[in-house]
Amino acid sequence: MQIVIFSDVHGNLNALEAVLTAIDQQKPDMIVFAGDLCLMGARPSACIAHLQARKDILSIHGNTDLMIGNPLALPEDADEATQSRYQQFNAISDWTLAQLSEAEAAWLRGLPFSFRLSPTNDAADDLLIVHANPKDVERPILPTDEVQQERFGKVSRSQPDAALEPLLADVTAGVIVFGHVHLPSVRQWRDMKLANISSVSMPMDADVRAKYGMLTWANGRWAIEHRFVEYDLEGEKTAVKQARPPGWEEMVQRLAGRP
Predict the structure, then answer these.
(1) 72 has pLDDT over 90
(2) What is the pLDDT of residues 4-40, one digit of tens each?
(3) Of 37, 92, 129, 254, which has fewest CB within 10 angstroms of its CB?
(4) Is 2-238+251-255 a domain of CATH 3.30.300.30?
(5) Rounded to an integer, what distance in angstroms lies between the CA atom of residue 258 and that of residue 206?
(6) 186: left (phi over 0), alpha (psi -120 to 50) or beta
(7) What pLDDT, on the 0 to 100 scale, is given for residue 176?
(8) What per-residue confidence (pLDDT) applies to 258?
(9) Can you give the residue ranges of every domain in the chain?
(10) What is the full DSSP assignment across the chain?
């Protein structure tokens, strides 16, 4: 049994189309989208239309899906930089909502939080798919210090196993699959594997390819594989420049990844 999971499209239509083409060539048994479909991109409505048209794709929501039409409340003690960031996020949220029909916005709001697949009668074998973690759509599960050091030459933010206790202690599964953090990685936590299948758009490293994950159940275990897809990056940059959503200059930069 093969399950494909992709996440964090962020309105990048070219990357979404390339990923769906690659997935269709694999002919998996199931396809799941793990949230963050259209905020921070040039063509939010078209991205929603693509998934709505695909009755074979199950979708869950991410944090930015819930932000559309729901302005962030500015903390009372926010400094100038924080105020600017919140204002920009609310501006792109409003812009994105204006690009959607009422039906599209309602579809996005109605997406579930998670999806669980049980290949056996034992919950310890389950595949649990969430956007960020099993509790909420905000708090990240980060790569290990070793992975961060290998990828970036430094540890940007350490998250030891003990720090994951509040997110995972009462969860039973064989593998938890998620996106949210736009960097492919796998880490072990007790008896569970934590598989970050990364993002279709806006990578956190220098690899600008769109990414997704393939999970295969065979011989009583889940095998995890990251997949990488080339797409028309320059065409997507042009689409952002033409649409000019609020903060479009930063969006163009983020499409190119981070060195």
Answers:
(1) no
(2) 999 999 999 999 999 999 999 999 999 999 999 999 9
(3) 254
(4) no
(5) 5
(6) beta
(7) 98
(8) 75
(9) 2-238+251-255
(10) -EEEEE---TT-HHHHHHHHHHHHHH--SEEEE-S--STTSS-HHHHHHHHHH-TTEEE---HHHHHTTSPPPPPTT--HHHHHHHHHHHHHHHHHHHHS-HHHHHHHHT--S-EEE-SSS-GGG-EEE-SS-SS-SSS--PPPHHHHHHHHSS-SS---GGGGHHHHTT---SEEEE-SSSS-EEEEETTEEEEE---SSS-SSS--SEEEEEEEEETTEEEEEEEEE---HHHHHHHHHHH--TTHHHHHHHHT---
Least Cα distance to 176 among 124, 228, 139, 242 occurs for: 124
Instruction: Render pLDDT for 201-237 as a digit per residue (tens, 0 to 9).
Output: 999 999 999 999 999 999 999 999 999 999 999 999 9
Residue 201 corresponds to which amino acid?
Answer: S
C-alpha distances out from residue 49 to 11, 29, 110, 190, 205, Å: 11, 22, 15, 40, 29
The answer, yes or no, to whether residue 259 has pLDDT greater than 70, is no
